[in-house]
Design goal:
With 84 residues, the chain is mainly alpha-helical. The chain has a domain of 43 residues. The chain is 44% helix and 0% strand. The N and C termini lie far apart (47 Å).
Length: 84
């Protein structure tokens, strides 16, 4: 019996790449910072959520890290120069 999410889908990502060593996890962890973490939310399509979970498992990171990296990259590319 597998775990399911609210949509009734299997909430466990593909097993491929899900195993990682402590050294891998440490190398891919976000850098330590004094900037506190805050909750930031929005709605995304269920299919995108599933794809993020699969990629996260494959890379041995969590979805939060993917989201943080994606937002940082977006702000860097599209934010006004010198303001951020």
């Amino acid at each position: 019996m597998g775990a399911t999410d609210q949509g009734g889908q299997d909430s466990r990502p593909e097993e491929k790449g899900a195993e990682m060593t402590a050294a891998t996890a440490e190398a891919q962890a976000p850098p330590a910072t004094d900037d506190p973490l805050v909750q930031f939310g929005g709605r995304i399509p269920a299919s995108l959520r599933r794809r993020v979970k699969v990629v996260a498992a494959y890379q041995g990171i969590d979805g939060q890290t993917i989201l943080r990296r994606a937002l940082e990259e977006y702000v860097e590319r599209h934010g006004p120069s010198g303001l951020i």
